[in-house]
Here is the input.
Amino acid sequence: MASARPHSPEPTGPLLNTACEAGAGEREALSLAYQAVRDRTEALAAPLGAEDQNLQSMPDASPCKWHRAHTTWFFETFILQRYQPDFRWHEPHFCELFNSYYQAIGKQYPRPKRGLISRPDIHQVADYRAEVDRRITDLLNSVDQRHWRAVSGLAALGLNHEQQHQELILTDVQHGLFQNPSLPAYRLSGAPAATPAGQTAWLSLDGGLANIGHTGTGFAFDNESPCHSYYLEPYRLASRPVSVAEYQAFIRDGGYDNPLLWLSDGWAWQQAGQISHPLYWLERDGECSTQFTLFGERELHPDAPVSHLSYYEANAYANWAGARLPTEQEWEHAVRTLNAWPTEADDSLLPAFDAADRGPLVFGGVWEWTASAYSPYPGFKPGAGAVGEYNGKFMSNQIVLRGRSCLTAAGHSRASYRNFFYPDARWQCSGIRLAQ
Amino acid sequence: MASARPHSPEPTGPLLNTACEAGAGEREALSLAYQAVRDRTEALAAPLGAEDQNLQSMPDASPCKWHRAHTTWFFETFILQRYQPDFRWHEPHFCELFNSYYQAIGKQYPRPKRGLISRPDIHQVADYRAEVDRRITDLLNSVDQRHWRAVSGLAALGLNHEQQHQELILTDVQHGLFQNPSLPAYRLSGAPAATPAGQTAWLSLDGGLANIGHTGTGFAFDNESPCHSYYLEPYRLASRPVSVAEYQAFIRDGGYDNPLLWLSDGWAWQQAGQISHPLYWLERDGECSTQFTLFGERELHPDAPVSHLSYYEANAYANWAGARLPTEQEWEHAVRTLNAWPTEADDSLLPAFDAADRGPLVFGGVWEWTASAYSPYPGFKPGAGAVGEYNGKFMSNQIVLRGRSCLTAAGHSRASYRNFFYPDARWQCSGIRLAQ
Amino acid sequence: MASARPHSPEPTGPLLNTACEAGAGEREALSLAYQAVRDRTEALAAPLGAEDQNLQSMPDASPCKWHRAHTTWFFETFILQRYQPDFRWHEPHFCELFNSYYQAIGKQYPRPKRGLISRPDIHQVADYRAEVDRRITDLLNSVDQRHWRAVSGLAALGLNHEQQHQELILTDVQHGLFQNPSLPAYRLSGAPAATPAGQTAWLSLDGGLANIGHTGTGFAFDNESPCHSYYLEPYRLASRPVSVAEYQAFIRDGGYDNPLLWLSDGWAWQQAGQISHPLYWLERDGECSTQFTLFGERELHPDAPVSHLSYYEANAYANWAGARLPTEQEWEHAVRTLNAWPTEADDSLLPAFDAADRGPLVFGGVWEWTASAYSPYPGFKPGAGAVGEYNGKFMSNQIVLRGRSCLTAAGHSRASYRNFFYPDARWQCSGIRLAQ
Amino acid sequence: MASARPHSPEPTGPLLNTACEAGAGEREALSLAYQAVRDRTEALAAPLGAEDQNLQSMPDASPCKWHRAHTTWFFETFILQRYQPDFRWHEPHFCELFNSYYQAIGKQYPRPKRGLISRPDIHQVADYRAEVDRRITDLLNSVDQRHWRAVSGLAALGLNHEQQHQELILTDVQHGLFQNPSLPAYRLSGAPAATPAGQTAWLSLDGGLANIGHTGTGFAFDNESPCHSYYLEPYRLASRPVSVAEYQAFIRDGGYDNPLLWLSDGWAWQQAGQISHPLYWLERDGECSTQFTLFGERELHPDAPVSHLSYYEANAYANWAGARLPTEQEWEHAVRTLNAWPTEADDSLLPAFDAADRGPLVFGGVWEWTASAYSPYPGFKPGAGAVGEYNGKFMSNQIVLRGRSCLTAAGHSRASYRNFFYPDARWQCSGIRLAQ
Here is the structure.
């Protein structure tokens, strides 16, 4: 189901937007979008056996089965519970098991123990998904005008939410399979070839008062709003992310041994974890020549973008290179000003430089760490009700990443999209773009 | 496959013994015994789905699937590797994945991560078992006289080892299912009814020089040897283990709140863990009236033996009761002197007082904590080769338990049998018998 | 040596500035300033016995004796080592013991073990201070024109550095004495009386392009530069910090029990630490009516500013109050626009509202948590050489606080001053000012 | 005050014994003994400054000042509180600060925080000691016949208790000073020279029914009773402890790298701690040629007894040497049978083989790890009242050591004496004697 299509940084397509009126066309479009997203989740899970789907290799990661159930719980809780006549829970204790972090909804099963949920099993979760799908589809076809806006808005949120979890299914299963000394592959063939990295150009941008944040009528998360002015000094942005070869030069030059390149917390983190290369690089006899991927163990290609780095490593690399990371505002401004956006493809699963002629910015299928702590925009208001916990309460201690990765669902991201992780997170498909 | 048969404390039956000569009868008897034990493991795993079989709820517990593979690895490594012509490993990295703790064999996959072994899956483990079974059965029928003694001795060890893991499959899966708020049952019906506890009598024993340790020609582990003299003062032993009703009286009397009853380490353990009742008792609104069992949640029966206690709790209870725990020598001496042994049944799965008329000692389907630290007997020699790691290297920091439990394979234990766990272990089916 | 004098947010006084020319007046002024700051450190340590001075109650805090030695090491390392003819170390292993975090200088004694430095003792540290003082004073009088700028600049840095440690001496000793059940006082008498809090007014500010960062010729740390433009939306700022009475209302209203008010990390922190009130409030029988201060245990005064809160608590309070914390840019802009600054006094040691008529903003002797993560300003360049580690490497995971506290040395802070701590830090004298 | 005198394994001298009648002689003898022990504590503390006396380098160790106060609290609590007319506490909160672990007495200040007790300071502790000394001396002279036995028994216990803490003062201060990179000496001169180790002989002992435990009228702790029969197989005991040269051979032979020599828990401990030599050996460039002692850094002498080892190391060494550790019963039986006991000297402070002609057994000034877990003797009864917590509640998870060390007070130990520590403890002066 690979779909490769050029994509603008400001999508306004109808796919997951909230239309105010429930015409037959809107109902059908949303039902089709619903089914497409839900089907993709099951397709992503399909290559995984029951045990693979239950793997939880660290508290930050969740089992695939849990993702499948949690995204279903989201629709059940936030839509069906409120808008379905004669609603009853599919199974009452799912409400605890599959509530991720919504305090307003109730008790949550402890996150570090999600790998201990042997029941429901994968078939029972498939049944759960099927029943909720039936009920949601019915509701989308039957809900009256008065509730259409709320229901369709929550459905759009639920689908975007599910797309986020689709990416997590892949990152989490990669981390889970990595624990196995046989290094099993998630997918056996079809890995894309690396394309030449090319020279990095420094693109100059003028700065001034920029508009930052979501505009237009397309779907966006609450953390992308409100759109606001932000004053930027003139700056320069690298035309492409850092490559494996460039990162190898940093390592050869003693980058991991020189505390002066590192943030203080980063140095402590790196020393405590004895970290000396990106997460999935495989060291044998002191050398790294391969890495673990969703296609199993593969040669490290010097022309590929480097990936699976923490913010601390990205920051140390930038210091070594005599540069810095861009702020999220610089990043967004440049993407908009240059009208640049990666070609999106659903399932390449491996970072590679974007060969398509997309203008001055080249992307690499990696999320790009910014220099910005994840904070509310001026005037930020969380969504109303329990979904208000979606984003706002995470606005401390995390760092914004921008762009999209080779694991991101097509059509999911945009110029104003704000991804965020703790600075020591490495299991996401994260890379480095420099600024000056 | 329930088998209930009276049993003497000194079994000499042929089942798992090492015969010196490989007559056709011996070959056939061992093959039959082999098949029976191996089949029972699969029967115990049968009610469990793939995810259930992969559960690891704490580092001390292992997934059922891992037990199934590890016991197979034991035969492959200690018998086939050495005695099978043209031996090759079923799958080379199983050697790391399923090596529990044998340093002489090689690297071991980290114990706390056994729940992360999604592959091999349950079917691949079944294949592994079937192939090793074929090869062992062939070997038992073909190995020449010269190696018979070694092979049959290792096979007997492997089968006794597998019986130990059969008990662990049950204790570990109970702990794993306990993590699930829906409290799923391992077995849906057939729980035995509690029988009246009856009064506790104090049996007086004379002491003097006792013979302690394994005698006779039946199988025994190395830690039961050599048989030796041990001087005992006269003592008294309770005729039966402590009941739920008696333990409830201890709790009601503030037993968990009075540090003077506890060992110093026990008090620290109990305070840190906020422990106020046996492991599987379920507290709702400050009261415990049910407990989690392999049959799911069930009423706490006052006439059942109390179980799933740590040594610290057993010791505190004994202090409260104005008594003490018996030493392992007292325990063994009494069982031999009184010629007492529980009726053995393969699968009652729930502790209950032993209704059969077995003489002055009544058992309860619980392992009985002794006062004895697990130490080598005078003159102890570990088995030769890698199997020498079986017992000896664990002889520190652990406490001996004696008897057998309702989860122990029939025919597996005996008067000289020494079970051992850390003093804070509670997930075994452990109870209390008092001494004075 | 109490000195209370009105103070402008933009001090340009000569005290600790770097003059480019070494006239006799400049030399004398700097020597006098040097002596005054150095003397104040010793005066702060004077009430403390040898054991008090060695207390380290947590890794974040350091012993008073260590502060006294470290500030001396700073002058020895960064000035004498480079500019004193015939330099030799006072005592070579002090270089490891009293190096806080300067990787470019060499090895550092582990921070969590500073309380284990029994030797040098307090008298040897006094000798160390006296000798370095002699040598610095000589140098300031003798260094030639060519090095004056560098030496005087480093001396100014060293004195501002020492003033920061003076505040830490007080915060750290308060935390240290708090561990003692007898709750000893650092100072026995002279605690200032609380003054009425008064009503909070909401001051409206226009926003627009603001100048943020240090300007002028006075001393500032590198993290306050460069001065730059920042676009602000119109906002409102509370005229004074939150009072004890107001915070008590938050507690009474269940503020610590409602997860919806908290950041996700804050809730986890608060639950794990079972935190239900500010750090130094003393709970007896479920009620807090007193708090521990540098004057020992004292009544909680409703009209005092609330203090010793984490960022998480400040943020939760703001949510409860239907407001938010100001950004550091809003804070700085308001202070400049309104030309407001607290009266400064060296040693009141207790937060109190500032009774002096200082215009629309009232201060409370507490550092004010902002909503801003501690990040580099656009174009930030760390100082050259090892002092470049002073600030820049801490720019992750911390939150900016603005203003000054009742423990801050007079003349030390200014409108552009950026203090920073981890969001869970509570042992600083930190409080809350709201914005909207 | 060095006193070197030959000593028998069964002291019956009057020094710290409990006489039943309070004749003038008894009163005076006890007063003199009291003063001598109390004076020695102060003499041991005298070389230490205030900060040295407050050092707590790990939870297992306590500050010297705390030992001085705790031993005083012992007399105040167990004697004065009960027997002094018009008793009042010297200072009420000392009761919490200096209660080590007596739950029956009340709350205890947390052990890991004892280094945070800056007040009372060393002078206030000296005052505390002086006042309690006055009051105890008065009481010993005035208490009537009726209470003499109880008071004199508790006084003997208190003095033996204080002697134990005298040894801890030395072991704990050595560990505290070891944290300082300047490796300060507790004592500057007078270290005894090493004497030749000589050959190890294997002494054969017959075994049979041995009498184990305290006999006679001299003082003994409750854990040495009751005296009882214990059956021993014939065994052989090494004539002297293992030397540094012998232990170096173990290391050179890869003893720390061979898991087959180690107990399972010992291997895990050693790997986690990256332990490759005894605690105080100083490794520079991969070699150990010196060690830290109470005399500062000194050459490792091949002819000295090896010391400061954990039980795990002692056990691994014994396995490597093809031997084992003796049980505590073997040890006691041999010492009695051979009538062997070390020359006792109050303050050599460094392990050395005992040159004096003491018969077949040679001692080395080190406690000797036995193979025996610390358990109650058959019929053991703890002392009545709160002092019943003295020993009994520690009878789990610890290992018995026998003999005495070069830090033990003269006259303090005997053949039946049972010292005990956790198997990973290394900061005591512990060594190895082999058995077979």
